[in-house]
Amino acid sequence: MSNSRKKKNDTEAVVAEAMREVNMAMREVAQATAPLRKMSNKNLHDIESDSLPYHEPVSSEPKIETKGGAIQIKKPGLFGNSSTTINIQSAQNIQIGNNNTMIINSSSSRRMRTRDISPPPKPAKVDKEIVRQVLASTRLLEDTDLNMVSSKFMGKQWRRTLRLVGLEDIEIESKYQDYYSNGIKEISYQCLKYWKQKNPDTATVSHLAKALCEVFHPDEVCDKFKP
């Protein structure tokens, strides 16, 4: 027998053996799936619910659990939960996954919350007699008073403060349009100056101080004025 014919016979034998193994595997698969095929042909409504095993609904979202310095990620799968454990040391802020889950060190978070809710410091206590004198003062305002108020008290609530002084919104807006490029301090000064010119006899220290006390602590206000 020639070498070529012998090689051909050997190849055919190998192929035949492989086919037998494939057929055996297919029979085993058919036997294993026979109960499932029978079940699919039944009407599931005919099966009592008590005879079926109960399974809790499983979320497809991964669960992230932390314990000490370890982070465990559990992902529900078809045949149970699969999990991955990651050990992270000396880290406070960790970002995981597409959902941007942020795990923040609890102690620093508590410190931050405590700092955020801390009340602002109280102004220095002013003698009650000085407060009384300022709030009762009939001294007419000077430019130095207007400058002081514009510098010390006109911030985020400058519009509200000017309304309490006695200016109308249209008057405030007019000065704003004229001086907005110079900043809030200059706008406030021009508004107070306009109010003083419009009310030369009533533009007193007490009037302005009482308006400021509606927004700021009386001790803080009266400490800045001369009666």
Automatic annotation (TrEMBL):
Keywords, ordered alphabetically: Coiled coil, Kinase, Receptor, Transferase
UniProt-listed SUPFAM superfamilies: DEATH domain (SSF47986)
PROSITE patterns in the cross-refs: DEATH_DOMAIN
Molecular function terms, GO-annotated: kinase activity
UniProt-listed CDD domains: Death (cd01670)
Coiled coil: 1-28
Pfam families xref list: Death
InterPro entries registered for this protein in UniProt: DEATH-like_dom_sf, Death_dom
Regions crossing the membrane: none
An example Gene Ontology biological process: signal transduction
Death domain residues: 154-215
Stated name of the protein: Receptor-interacting protein kinase-like protein
